[in-house]
## 1
Amino acid sequence: MDVVNQLQRQFLDYSASLHREGFLDDQFTQLQKLQDENSPDFVVEVASLFFEDCEKLINNMARALEQQQGVDFKQVDASVHQLKGSSSSIGAMRVKNVCIAFRSFCEAQNREGCLRCLQQVTQEYSLLKNKLQTLFRLEQQILAAGGSVPTIE
Amino acid sequence: MDADNKVRRKEVLSSMCDERARMLQDQFSVSVNHVHALAILISTFHYYKNPSAIDQETFAEYTARTAFERPLLSGVAYAERVVHSEREEFERQHGWTIKTMQREPSPVRDEYAPVILSQETVSYIESLDMMSGEEDRENILRARATGKAVLTNPFRLLGSHHLGVVLTFPVYKSKLPTRPTVEERIEATAGYLGGAFDVESLVENLLGQLAGNQAILVHVYDITNSSDHLIMYGHQDEDGDLALLYESKLDFGDPFRKHTMICRYHQKAPTSWTALTTAFLFFVICLLVGYILYGAAIHIVKVEDDFHEMQELKVRAEAADVAKSQFLATVSHEIRTPMNGILGMLALLLDTDLSSTQRDYAQTAQVCGKALITLINEVLDRAKIEAGKLEMETVPFDLRSILDDVLSLFSEKSRNKGVELAVFVSDKVPEMVMGDPGRFRQIITNLVGNSVKFTERGHIFVKVHLAENTKPVADTKAENCLNGGSDDSVLLSGAHQFKTLSGYEAADERNSWDSFKNLVSYEESRYDASINMTVAGETSQSVSLMVSVEDTGIGIPLIAQDRVFMPFMQADSSTSRNYGGTGIGLSITKCLVELMGGHISFVSRPQVGSTFSFTADFGRCKKASFNETKKPNTEDLPSSFRGLKAMVVDGKPVRASVTRYHLKRLGMLAEVASSVKRAVSACGINGSSCGSKIQPDIILVEKDSWLSGEDGDLSLLMLDRKQNGHMFKLPKMILLATNITNAELEKAKAAGFADTTIMKPMRASMVAACLQQVLGIWKKRQAGKDTQNGSLRSLLCGKKILVVDDNMVNRRVAAGALKKFGAAVECAESGKAALKLLQIPHSFDACFMDIQMPEMDGFEATRRLRMMESQANEQMNGGDTDEGLAQKSEWHVPILAMTADVIHATYDKCLKCGMDGYVSKPFEEENLYQAVAKFFKVKPISDS
């Protein structure tokens, strides 16, 4: 029981730190609340959808921005919009914030800025991915130890 | 004028000219007559007398003496007709030869006319043959033929070299027959009398005698040969006024010759003053007109320039306006993001173990954060109010909890100022009303905010009644349900105090105890009948509430009272310096109140305070629904205090009523005692028959009452009582205070009060939290949440919903959220796919539509869908009317936009495209509930 308690505590601390550091916002908590017996893997499912989506979009943008001349900013903008939507849906606040800056660079057709943002997005994304995987691992451990995942408010 | 002048000038010239011509002619004819007389003299005395009575000497003397008769003639001479045959004899007789004009002996001719008699002045022509001169010869021939005086052409006279003419008269030897022929005349001719007219000096003299000589220039011409005018007088080269001349005929008695006199002015006509003035005036007028036209043109150009400038400014102002809206939208959007972070953190903080004070702080922070977000929306709405586009929501809400929230917003401020802040809602006011909670909150916030701003002492009291109850009821029973508080308060304080909340005087007496107690007691007296009342009340659809906000602040100066509701007007300019603010608050409040179907008024006395009162109409909430439909903003009050008995010790009846009101909301039974002593007696501490007395679980003591000196009594008596076994358990004692110092707190603890002090302003939830801490009862936190989910669940359960979003993650999340509430969800990833799924007939109950999608966006998809629906509806209505209408009158699937954009412009656009509303993305339960509640009827949970 101690192990479970400790894990639970760890889980809560970790997710609190994720919130504190701005990786996640309230929306993620909402997602966690949506998870119940009917859809036990809801968060993981959504998160993996998000990661797939992200990778695809980042690749798209990278490819579009590779061109030295004649970058199709409209396409980049569409991708950023998608990414922004996805990230706000999942509550990935830092990714979302970078997306906001990214869009303004797209509007200004600033390739330098776009590239910088792309780099940031990539970085934030991989950071988040790591963090979330850790979180999910903790969750798995709790479940494996026979405990229930504590709900966060 | 000028023409007149010219005419006059011409007349003057003509008259002068005529005058001169006449005189010249007269003088001339006088001379001619005289020469004629001389001719007769010669014929008489030279020829008819034999021998001749006249010789050279006589003639010279006579002519010299009669020269005055011939002033025009330089001299006269007589030449005898000598035929060639007589020449020799004649020469011999006279002793000289006939000479020509050139003073040479005359060559042989048929006839000669040598001068034999001459005046002395012209003696030099004696013996000259007049016929040798061309002019004279012609003259002589003409004279003897006509028998009249004839004149020569003008020529330079010998001697004087003046211009002149020679006048010649024939002298006949014998008397002529009455009608002599030319031949008879020639035959009879004896000689010729001639005189030289010195015309030049003649005219000169003549003119000298006349006035105006200087002004005019006279020429005399011989115009016998009309093609060649010979000048007789005047210089050819003299110039004068060539434009104007006058010609006068001269008749010198020689019908063969014609003469004329031409006069002209020496100088040109002086230009007339009138003409000059006219010209000048005309010029000036032209100048002025020109200037006016120029000015007008300049003005027009300037106005045009200004107009263009204005237009440009207008365009810029409009751009600025758009930019402002954009800015507001962006900023409010940007503020929401960090605010969400703050609120999330606060929510997390609230889940940790906190002391009641900490919890209160955190809750206050959270409420304030929420209020800030609301405020941001309000900022956006402000422009709408001014444009008159504000629309009121109609949703059920709990008035009391809103009032509590507003109070908590200002609790910190009022506590710091030591101002008591309290709210009282009459029991008659329904728990839930239909209306716009945001706007109601805004009104209250504005009014309370103003009061807090302008009040330094005393109290601020918010009171809500049914509007029809505000008038004191006349037949109120005099019996005092509240232990006759009014007498005791005077006793207690010993000094004159107003019977208001804090004892300070208030502007409007309606809130003082005298009328307030009537109200309370009226309500209490009718309490039993309240079931009937509510039943009766519910028949009417709306309920009119009267809300008053009373303060004991600085009041409004009398002169400023009539412009209080005018925008940007504050009492005076120093107000904004001292207290800040824009002065727009009250004007907005007024608009809002009017939109709620009420009106706002105020009573204010400077240095006493102000009371703002407004009425507002709210819809009544169906009893069935508000049991289920707990509004999200309703803080659920714990039910664990239900049935507890409380004793409120407060010397001020109004304040005691407020405390009682809050306790009642928690389901507690409350009694009021005006002093500790009375409380003790009420508790039956000193009495023997405790059965009739209440046994309070809690005693709430107002700090003022406690400090009034009887503190020791209570706790000691209580302890004593317990020890004596009269009481089973000691009631908890809690202090009520607006502010409290640490020393006082220590003292209170020592006196047996609980650790927790209930700080004012009181709110039901806060009181509950304090009581929980004191009594050790912990409510289950989840309780509230569940009911809310339940209500949403009841709305969505079993509904088939289509989610349209191109973003996979969003789709999944939205679907997950909706499924959670029991809805059956289908997804479509584009507008086209959605249209395919929504082909009529379909079984969807609602559609959630993303707006920004590639290919076909949400607006477009909605538009097409609505088109499809209207076609289907037409067909249905046209075809089988009976059956179709009976089943489903029209196809209209509710479409809700999903958007991250919270700006209202988007909402308008949603509606324009045929959407029914929007939910913000990511979903918030509250928001989702509000949007969905409009379309789905609430089903009791049991149905699901």
Note: Chain B touches chain A at residues 337, 340-341, 343-345, 347-348, 350-351, 805-810, 812-814, 816-817, 819-820, 850, 852, 854, 900, 921-923 (CB under 8 Å).
## 2
Amino acid sequence: MSLSVIAVISRFLEEYRSSTSNKLKVIDAYLLYILLTGAFQFLYCLLVGTFPFNSFLSGFISSVGSFILAVCLRIQINPQNKGDFLSVSPERAFADFLFAHTVLHLVVVNFIG
Amino acid sequence: SGLVSLLVFVLALEAQALTPSHYLVASDVDRLQAVLSQPFTDLKSAYFSVVGLSKLGVSVADSNDACSFIKANVDSSSIEALFYAAEASQAISSCEIHVSNETRDSLHAAVSEDSTVSQIHQAVSALSSLGLPLASQEVVSALKARISKEDNVVAITLALQTASRLSQQAELGEILEEIEDLAARLDDLGGVYLQFEEGLEATALFVSAAYALSDHVDMEPPLKEDQVIQLVNSIFSKKSWDSLSEAFSVASAAAALSNNRFHKPVVVSAVGPATVSHSHPLLQLHVTDVLCQPLSSANVLVESATSVASKAAILSQTPFTLRDGIFELNFMASKPASGYYQFSVAVTGDSRLVANHVELKVKVSTKVAINNMDLSVVDKDQSIGTKTTRVEYPNKGKASFIADSHQNFAMTFQLVDETTGVELTPHQTFVRLHNQKTGQEVVFVAEPDSKNLYKFELDTAERKTEFDSISGTYALYLMVGDATLENPVLWNVADVVLKFPDEEAPSTVQSKNLYVPKPEIQHLFREPEKRPPTVLSNTFTALVLSPFLLLLILWFKLGANISNFSFSPSSVLFHVGHAAMLGLMYVYWTHLNMFQTLKYLAIIGSLTFLAGNRMLAQKAVKRYSLHHL
């Protein structure tokens, strides 16, 4: 049973390495970074406590928000999804990504205290 | 018998009738007169002063001066000025104002439905005071029309005043009914005051207008006796007046209430405190009207005087005698015992009198004498005979009395009325023992027995806690006091030496002082929250920042590079702008507030947007051209 899981995982990783374009891999690396940052913040909160709560929330929301926006960017940039995003060029997606981040960071910095 | 009890109940209620709690005393009337005697500044103030003083029964200081002032200041084109001049000149003897035919016509013309009630009032009063004829029925119809349009207290009061100047043959019935309607608008405050919400002046003017009109038509105004007294309370509660018009209104009301055909409120008050004694045997009362004039023609009678303590009736139907404007009664002639007496006083002789039954509490004081003061030291086992020493007030016992734990110290005495010899039981009979060395004092109460003989016993052993077991010489004082005693007593009777067993070292008594500064309270500011140790915080900071390192490594491994960076101006500007925005975020965190940030963000953001838009458009063109090669 465990063997099949490992087999599936290694197969997935192989497929990933070969079929994803570099651009997407760059974004995936960024996604991993954001994920880890958020996870470490949550770990701190679990271990040490929620003081100061507003700072924890803003940091965590920042991670989550950034992750979501990056996922959106990845989806919109992926040439395989071109059919779904006829009106959105990759440049437009990137511009949207930047604008959304500006708003997110404004809110996060306001709340971080 | 049900009817009888109902009658008794009603009579009892009537006995509780209201009496004035606020009234003018002589000094208040003088003050009112002084306010009204101020020098005139204009015609209006001359009117208030002259007419106000005449209501108080006083003539203005220099009548010739006043008359010339009025004549000089009257403006024949103003109805108001004519009103003031006419009324004032009428109040001054031998002061006549002559008006031309034109003026007379303008006054007549003012009486119409198109003028305000105030104008009609002024015109009618002027015509009446100048002795000129007027058409009363026209005035009545004009007033009726105006009352329905100007339905406020002041206007209707002026209408009542106006109606009192008209001929008695005119139909004043409807206007007379307005008195009742206005009276219904009065606010009852706590059952004590009755006044308009418009204030004192409106209430006072209403009273004078209502009585003026009632006297004119000879019909009793629809005001109950309690209401009249409540009006008295309202009008005379203020003893200093803000304006000349207010003082005038109070003087008007006082004149109306002291001299009308129907109601005459009576003010009964004691001269000084209501106390009689052998040295001051007379009970003196002021019985006056609201203007503080004594009711010389009235009969003042004590219906009953009963002792508060014993409920025994001392007097019944005893008259007061009038001397120099004060009603007197020699109460001590009835030889009352000391204490309080409830007097029920009735003022008769005039059917108009209101609040003429008054309840008064009179105190009879006396001097106390201490008889048969016997001091003795009694042995507890009664084996040795008691030695009694008599001490006469106000002397002090020559020898000290010694009492130790085997003996009791005893004191007996009698308190009697100095004049009559009747035994007294004052409220305060205390025995005070004062240790002169330590300053300690202990107070006991002496109680009378059934024969009104006072006894005090001190058991040394039993009472040692009160004395803190401090032996020594104590000065013994007797304190006698009561509200009805003219001579309270503090008598150092003797010295007593007390010996307590198990004596502790005498410590000076610290008087319990309640008024020393208390220990200062230190304010505890809110403790800041406990923070985790810095090491831990730093560790986690490093941990949270570490994925960035990982990102850089991954990107390097993926071969991400900036080799395609075009140095076009828009591209440079975009990156600079973007960096500036990130920098702004940091500055926002540290220094700025949201408003400032938004301001800067708008500037930098729009620049970055324009540059970025350009840059991305260039990139898109490049990509498009590349793909479509």
Note: Residues 86 and 470 of chain B are 89 Å apart (CA to CA).
## 3
Amino acid sequence: MISYNNQIYLDIDDILAQEQKIPCVFLYKAYKLGSLIEKKKEIKYKLEIKCTHHPNYDITSKCINCNQGVCSVCMSELHNGHSFSSESLNLEIICIHHPNYDITSKCINCNLGVCLVCKLKLHKRHSFSELNNNMSSEDTDIEKDTKIKLPYWLAYVLAKKSLVSVEIPNPYKDEHSFTNRLLADPKEVSMIHYPYYASSGTKISSLFSDHNLKLFLLNIFKKRYLYIYNQASFLKDNSMITKILGNMTQFEKRLFQEIHKSFVDFENWKISSDKIEKNYYLYPIESNINSAKSSPNKRKRLIFAN
Amino acid sequence: MEENIGLTPNQIEFLAEDTIITIVPNFKMESLIFLSGEYGPFIPSFPVKVPLWLAVSLKKKKKCNIVPPEWMSFDYLEQQYIQENRVTDGFVDLPDNFIEISTMLLSSCPEDINDVNKIRSLIEDILNRRQSKLNNSLMNHLQSLKDNEPISTMEFKNFSMMEINRVRSSFVSGINHLYKIQSLDNNDNNSNNNNNNINRTQSNSQTASRSIYSNTINFSK
């Protein structure tokens, strides 16, 4: 929370940083909290769907960019460079016969994936089995000693009441590969998976009363801050900027943009005031209107009647 | 993250235009009365003191010649530049708002100033030198802190308002962030106690100060 001119601004970093997952072990049985458990997406069975473009090949995975099922030939020819996932094979594959509908279940008789319309028209009176991929919304009990990952805001409260025992999450652990990379060269490590690394790190270090973690974070962010400061004051090349920004946490992105903006503003001001304004007093009305439109940042000067 | 802290360069230029410089008019008029004061009767070839905004607009109508201020001579600036290079842990005392005044004068009346191009490049050199000194001292200060030391007061003297404005957001946000990481009391379900004491003073003079708990960054004359 920031108090500024007697108004209070919520620090969004603080709130979003509390989503960091912390592995917890339940010490007691928790009733009706089953919605906390995410069901892993399992490939229950293999769907045999022929690819539309290459009729001899089965669909083996899903292209994430285009949201379509692809066969092995498609992967190399039509979807070159896209990323694929073979896990959630059952989700969101569009039915061949009815392109507006997703495949939602499997026909047991024909061993094919079917959409709603297929069920009604093409596979009448066959039996189906549902593809169960969504998060379970049943409220089952969580048994004692189950290990699940909870967000910080929940883990903190449960830990204070000693209902769970918590463990430091992976990116902050001592010997983990991520921390080792950070120790080696903090500037080059990409924070793309941990956009709130600093804020959640401070909360975690207070939860575990781990002073070393705090010092570690301080050192890293000191170096990154100096790097950002130096780069932001000189860089003009937009592609380099986006490349650097891609590796930063949310806070660092905003910081970079602020610094960059103030330096660029100064440069622009300096350049624009060096320009000698021509014909300023010969055509008082028209050129004034034009100049006001074209440079909205420049304030108008008072004009004495000529 | 606080937004819109500080001024835009145009606003600072506006504030700087109140400074008084001498002109030599070539027309005759009785004294002008403005809210900010009365600017004496204009007699051809008699120097008169007016604010900068008035001088620039008269110049654009070709009604006067501007006498450059005393500090705008090549010798004085060169002396300051040499001094700047010698002193590594402070900044040289330069006149208030020299950046704004110099850019305005150099753009509106280059013919009235001796050695215009030399002065232009010299001022740029001075600015670059000061900025890099600031960068280096920040880097040295942060890197020299040992692990347990909190980030404490930093003081910069003789920094002009335009330069302060340029680095204000970087210093304040960055160091505030580092301070938050290292502060002891991090149980942030009520984090207002950490950040309530941010005082911010907009500077019309040469000082800008911001205190974050016990940290202070002081820019003073």
Note: The beta strands of chain B are 20-25, 32-34, 37-39, 48-51, 64-66, 154-157, 199-200, 208-212, 215-220.
## 4
Amino acid sequence: MPFGNTHNQLKMNYSAAQEYPDLSKHNNHMAKVLTEELYAQLREKATPSGFTLDDVIQTGIDNPGHPFIMTVGCVAGDEETYEVFKELLDPVIEDRHGGYKPSDKHKTDLNPDHLKGGDDLDPDYVLSSRVRTGRSIRGFCLPPHCSRGERRAVEDLAVEGLGSLDGDLKGKYYALKNMTDEEQQQLIDDHFLFDKPVSPLLLASGMARDWPDARGIWHNDNKTFLVWVNEEDHLRVISMQKGGNMKEVFNRFCTGLTKIESLFKDKGHEFMWNEHLGYVLTCPSNLGTGLRAGVHVKLPCVSKHEKFGEILKRLRLQKRGTGGVDTAAVGGVFDISNADRLGFSEVDLVQMVVDGVKLLVEMEKRLEKGQSIDDLMPAQK
Amino acid sequence: MPFGNTHNNYKLKFSAEDEYPDLSKHNNHMAKALTLDIYKKLRDKQTPSGFTLDDVIQTGVDNPGHPFIMTVGCVAGDEETYEVFKDLLDPVIQDRHGGYKPTDKHKTDLNFENLKGGDDLDPKYVLSSRVRTGRSIIGYTLPPHCSRGERRAIEKMSIEALSSLDGEFKGKYYPLKDMSDKEQQQLIDDHFLFDKPVSPLLLASGMGRDWPDARGIWHNDNKTFLVWVNEEDHLRVIAMEKGGNMKEVFRRFCVGLQKIEAVFKKHNHGFMWNEHLGYVLTCPSNLGTGLRGGVHVKLPNLSKHAKFEEVLNRLRLQKRGTGGVDTAAEGGVFDISNADRLGFSEVEQVQMVVDGVKLMIEMEKKLEKGGSIDDMVPAQK
């Protein structure tokens, strides 16, 4: 976690070699990139708000990583982190986001009319559909670094903005620290409640300081649109519903997001965005769209097929268990979502999910009948 | 944990009210002492090494405490913390250390010959004896704040100092990060091994950063003198052995400590000490002697007596389970140690343990025979 150490004024009395972390047992993106030379070059820099190199990397030092899962190992404390520490973060981004270069431009497309189809995924197979993203409010530091005053100001702005939504989006805010037992139970039953993180990856970034101060959950009365305030990002926006109508979910997602963004703009606050990185978020893995669109889908036959991994890869999709990341599939039901975040637009990514899931369901039906799926194998997207 | 937030350059743009933590659900010494006015007064201060008020208090903000156990809720990042933030720490110290005033002077006495008796605690009741303390090295910041370079320098100096010990103190250093499986198992079997802390109280202070870099355990060949390097304090020094010869344990403790101090002094790095606070350590609860002298003793009858707590109180002793703090007693065996740290010398504290345990064993023997202990209850020390 970015600690006292990270702003310790005595550390410059020591050489870069003496301060350089021991990454010999580490396997994460930060450890792959951060050579001693790079550490020496960046170690005395700080962003205007005071975020240092040691702040950026502490989570990656304290969490050496997993032999099979490549974690990111670094976080941003503010918008300027990605600029001041670009010599570290550009290679991390390139490695994590499929070769995305420092000169590349990212497309943003939140026009739901551009999505083709997506309203007819077979509900016998697709149990639920969901789209999520994150947003950061320009002018405030990010969760690893924000002060209590900043965090509370973000909450105030969010509550005000969300409070003015109406129609399908009319809803209510539940502050974590004032929640009644009844409200808490309802939010748990709805699978909406988020709690103080326990993952050392998240805790090590400093995002959980002062919990539960200025954290809360907003959702609409219909329970199809949900916003988390001050969790891993300033805002996490989620649209979801049972069944396979991804088109409607994406529609609501775009409409809601765009409304929220204009409400913030009215108060003089934009979302952090630039044409290279798209939407700027705490974790480099969420840059670009920050979007994960997915379905819970029954694929008991396809998932046992030897080409399942290959198919997902070619479709640029990833699988997870229905408990989310790092969980196992139960009863042949998988969470299938886009693998990319940066370098493709929101519409591109949701289109990949819609088209890909449609194909997977076709394959499942074929295999159910004992037929081959060889002619259905897709090309690499 | 003192995080990025704690050196966030934007926080002073927010009012003290906006930044003041919500301590309404808190029960720790910091929360009792930190009024909005004190927060206002201290929030733009920092020590020469850059430790801020938010660094001091983050652990107490993140750990509201327990209704029955009063935690401290604040830590020092360097020697100067106790001066720069005295408006907060003096009341905390006074509350924690039985009314110790800012003008009081602390006595240090590590002359083991001043201990009377202590070599004849009945080994049928006293299973083991142990004395521990902590030491901080002048010129380096403390575990919540130290940089990797500083921590490594402390380790290097400690190894040098400990390697120069001979006779009964001749021993070996085991760095945590290079330990072989065999060495690790042996240290576990000897009950010497310390691991990365899991307590959120400790983690929140920042002392777990960069684990296990520059952490290690040194012990003498006889396994009666042990030093932990860079755990919660720069050094933790422990003397222990089976049986009831506390006099011998204390002798070894004092002699070993003084030998180590002499080596550090030679390099112009003595131990942090002043005549008001005694030995300066990370946690305000360990100021003064930092000493806990204790025994594992069988008191199955006395511990069930209605006056057990009262007796301990008057003897200025405390009980713990044999697993250490926050554990339960097993088989009527208790860990009995001095309750005080500041305002009494080392000799005085160990004397209280020796005399107190002797008395309690007499009481135990009386109760075994069915006698009364009413006439044995001591006056308040």
Note: The two ends of chain B are 38 Å apart (CA to CA).
